[in-house]
Amino acid sequence: MLIGLLNIDWGVITIMLPLAGGIACVLWPAMSKPAGLISVTGVVLAIAGLGWRIMENGTYRHAVGGWGAPLGIDLFADGLSLVMLIMTALVGLGISFYAKRFFSPCDAVRFWPIWLLLLAALNALFLSADIFNLYVALEMTGLAAVALTALTGRIDALGGAMRYLLATLLGSLAYLLGVVLLYHDAGSVDIATLAQRIEPNAAVWTALGLMSAGLALKTALFPLSFWLPPAHASAPAPVSALLSALVIKASFYILLRLWLELFGAFAEGVSMLLGLLGAAAILWGSLQALRQTRIKLLVAYSTVAQIGYLFLIYPLALVSNGMAASMAAYLAFSHALAKSAMFLAAGNLMQFGGHDRIADLDRAVQRLPLTVAAFALAGVSIMGLPPSSGFVGKWLLLDAAMSQGRWDLAVVMIIGGLLAAGYIFKVLGYAFTQAEVPHDARAVPAEMEWAALLLAIGAILLGFMAPQIFALIHPDLAVNASEAGTVWTA
Amino acid sequence: MTNAFLYAFAGIGLFVLGLHALVVHAHVLRKILAVNVMGSGVFLVLVALARRSGEATSDPVPHAMVITGIVVAVSATALALALMLKLAGKSGEAVLPGKHND
Amino acid sequence: MDGMSGNAWLPLMVVASALLPGLIIFGLPEEKVRLRTVLNLTGAFAKIIFTGWMLWGVYHGYQYEIRVAFLPGLDLALRADSLSLLFIALSSVLWLLTTVYAIGYLEGSPHRSRFFGFFSLCVTSTSGVAMSGNLITFLVFYELLTLVTYPLVVHRGTEAARRAGQIYLTYTISGGALLLFGVIWLYSITGTLEFSPQGILYDLDTAYYPALIAIFALLIAGLGVKAALVPLHGWLPEAMVAPAPVSALLHAVAVVKAGAFGIARVVYDIYGIDFAAELGVTGPLAALAAITILYGSLRALAQDNLKRRLAFSTVSQVSYITLGVAIVGPLATIGGVVHLVHQGLMKITLFFCAGNLAETLGIHKVREMNGVGRRMPWTMAAFTLGAFGMIGVPPVAGFISKWYLGLGALESGENWVIPVLIGSSLLNAAYFLPVLHRAWFRDPPDSWPVTRDTVRDLGDKETAWALLLPPVITALLALFAGLLASAWFSPLEWVQLIAQRAFHHP
């Protein structure tokens, strides 16, 4: 029976289940909340099954409908995809339980189907084996994300969503043009086949430029990050969390895949450029975050800065130390947990005080302790202070930078950490302090506080699981503690 | 072969024109149209490059891709238009709100 | 060997004895006073028992170690050796006493669950700092200490507290960043961060020496923030807005000691004392410590606020430890390291007493202390012992530290240290003796600066017993640490064991 479970095509289920759930939500709006929660929980279980299968049998490949490449659609998952899927499922689950209490019935009817569509798109994206299929999944992700941004229908949200939509369409068209050129050059869209055939020539270089620029725009790499703060700050809190934690990781993942499998070997100059932009993003995003007077914009600019760290992987780890996939997956996971917790906590503070002005937090630490704890723990990870996954991620990057003599990047990372401490503790300092004018406050449901806190605790605990995460991605590079125990010294 | 490249370059020309329009125009409808022009450009390149040198029949895979792409483009345009209408309904004009916070 | 394997958990138990009660206390409602007290005291006693067990083991040659994989090539390692146990023993005894004191001090005040929760986390991180088996573990707990002390600094929730908290963080987080940079640079050269009795650098090529000097500067700058080395000491007087038990345990003992202890670890177990001397970094460190000793004392002279005067005194006194570490020689090492304990006992006494004065009579300033010895004789007796210890009057513990520092300086030919020690002792006397004179020999004022709503009504009692007992005990401990310095159980004896192991290792 267990063997039977092992052979189930869990990958297909992770896509079909939320899709079916989303359709059910549209057909029976009254059922959308239970349908949504069941689908998300089901996805978590299916990904557990998929993970088990990958650990037993190695990488997963499934030809949908039995067609197979080049005509059919192949699903593919290795350790990197698996970690991204786990990230999506766990963070998605946390946000779902938060959303359960957050939305009014009227908003909930719109939220659940779009969120389930987004989940299906994200899963499809992380399971895609070919670059055209990635385009379709990427576009689905983008459209669902835009629709979620506009959910409340407030004017700032509509403006943010519109800007976001245009940016995301532009990005995916550039990507698609790159796909076309690669297909023309190598006659395939399957990543594995492309990897064997690709050689640097004019068409490939143009494709590289178009795809990198398009995906960098969708990932909001500075200076292409102009659309992110208005969109992420104006969306409802659970949507901001989804956007910052998961959606930008989708385009980042595609870019990473392309560089790991296709471009990394010959485009060292461009990876330097991506790294420099990442460094600029860290400084610019952090400084902007420090200037903000509202929590949600602060957190949104913090995302701009944190994206910068992800792009430091290109110059530091892609060619030289073979850890790029592990580091990228780990950093993305870490940021997803911390940033979702932070946005959810910001949502609680907003609901609680009716505003998100930092200077008027007015002893939130006593009145909303779990939420402030969530913000603080997530903040520790964002700052890169131990013990947290943010620290481990920063350590790995710093280690790579120092061993390659990249002092400039190391210094930028250290400064970025200091600036992050500045903007996180700005919020916490006011959360401990009594405001001059007392404010009215509304209650926040316990589930919403706990959802934020559990995600933040996840960001801390992930800091102790780096060896396990790396073992998923590089089974051959497993790290173990050296000999332990009581030592008798003569 | 020459024909194919002519079409392909025309497609790239459309893409660049669309990009230009997307950047310079303020009205959202123009921006949406610009994105559509860019999309058409990409599809044109795709179809043009389907005829590979020395082959009598053209490759069917790009055609399938174009059809998929068109479906995606239609849904994206629908969403964009709906958003634009809502935005115009709320703010009275279909332009993007002023630069946020810089 | 197998029979002893369960003991590998002992370091973990020491950490858990503070961590678990702390986590439970966070969840307790405010009014569960008794349960919270029981949890606090259980944790504190458990820690003393585990520490005693390990003291016995280490004395008999055992090492306790537990490690878990953390990063590629790096483990989190907790290890109890003789140096870490010295710090652990100090912190566990003082934790118990401070817990009693804090329960008395905060009676009836709001947010005690939060306070005691973070208080326990501070003790957890201090234990971790003490038992770190390598620099990465040290870094983790050192930074954790920064994070968990912040809520205690801003505990009162006033605008002044928020500002002080910001200053505190600006210093400590920047220091942490320098430390991180130094550690990662070191790691890129050595590929290991394990503490080892002779250091890990002695067989490196001389081409690395300039880098190693720069790394030393970074590490000392990072650690020097918490150890309050001039000019990185600015946070310490500001952090005095915190409640008295916080000033007492954390700022007089845990935080500054974590910095000083880290300096000792870097000099002895990363660089190795001989290698550090060869590199020429110990001389500048000793000079910096000497400057800090004199500067702190000079600034203390000018403070009218009692807690600020004590804070500057801490700046000065903690640098005796650094000075002892930086003078190459076993006797100076003994003087410096034993001061880790002695200064802790004496300074916590002084802060407890200052807290009692503020809490009982509303006295915050030196000039309000006229005749207070008659009103609170036990408190002031303890204060007097602590002050004499700081000045270095025999037989109180501070004398032992200064004696060994002086001998060590002469032994290694660093004669310039002697005038520094004498000058510092004169300054100590100059800022403590007037306080004692006021307290014992001037007439009390007609009324004390009591403000009704801040101070409880005690009738004729000197003060609450929970506030009186801890300073009296720590004062006696400081006295006996000096009086019985040659007894087998004294801190001095233990430190001689440490020095023996550091200097006569095969």
Molecular structure report:
The complex is a heterotrimer of chains A (490), B (102) and C (506). In chain A, 75% of the residues lie in helices and 2% in strands. Chain A is mainly α. Chain A has a domain at 294-479. In chain A, helix 2 packs antiparallel against helix 3, helix 6 packs antiparallel against helix 7 (155-186) and helix 14 runs antiparallel to helix 19. The longest helix of chain A has 32 residues, at 155-186. With 102 residues, chain B is mainly α. Chain B has one domain: Helix Hairpins (Orthogonal Bundle), CATH 1.10.287.3510. Helices cover 75% and strands 0% of the residues of chain B. Chain B contains 3 helices and no strands. Chain B has helices at 2-24, 28-48, 60-91. In chain B, helix 2 (28-48) runs antiparallel to helix 3. The termini of chain B are far apart. Chain C has 506 residues and is mainly alpha-helical. Helix content of chain C is 71%, strand content 3%. In chain C, strands 1-2 form a two-stranded antiparallel sheet. In chain C, a hairpin with a 2-residue loop joins strand 1 (62-71) and strand 2 (74-80). In chain C, helix 3 (82-105) packs parallel to helix 13 (330-361). The longest helix of chain C has 32 residues, at 159-190. The model of chain C is unreliable at 1-6 (pLDDT under 50). Chains in contact: A-B, A-C. Chain A binds chain B through residues 70-71, 132, 135-136, 139-140, 143, 146-147, 150, 153, 155-156, 158-163, 165-166, 169-170, 173, 176-177, 180-181, 183-184, 187, 189, 229-230, 292, 297, and chain B through 12, 15, 19, 22, 28, 31-32, 35, 38-39, 41-42, 45-46, 49, 52, 61-62, 65, 68-69, 72, 75-76, 79-80, 83-84, 86-87, 90-91, 96-97, 100-101. Strand 3 (487-488) of chain A pairs antiparallel with strand 1 of chain C.
